[in-house]
Amino acid sequence: METRIEAGVGWIEVTRGGLSVLAKGDDALRDRLISALEAAPEDDPVDVVTDELTTGGVRRAPDFAIADEGSRRLLVRGSALARVAGQAEREVAAPARGPWSEEDIDDGVASVTLVGGEPEVPAGHPEHAAEDDQAPEEQSEAAYPEHPQFHDGHLISPLLVPGAEEEPQPEQGAEEPHHDTGDLPAGPMVLAVSCSQGHPNPPDASNCRVCREAVPEQQAQMTARPSLGVLHLSTGESVTLDRDVRLGRAPKAGEDATSEPHLIRISSPENEISRTHAEVVLDGWRVLVRDLGSTNGTFVTAPGGTPEALQAGQEVAIGPGATITLADRVSLVLEVAGQE
Question: What architecture does CATH give domain 230-335?
Answer without folding.
Answer: Sandwich (2.60)
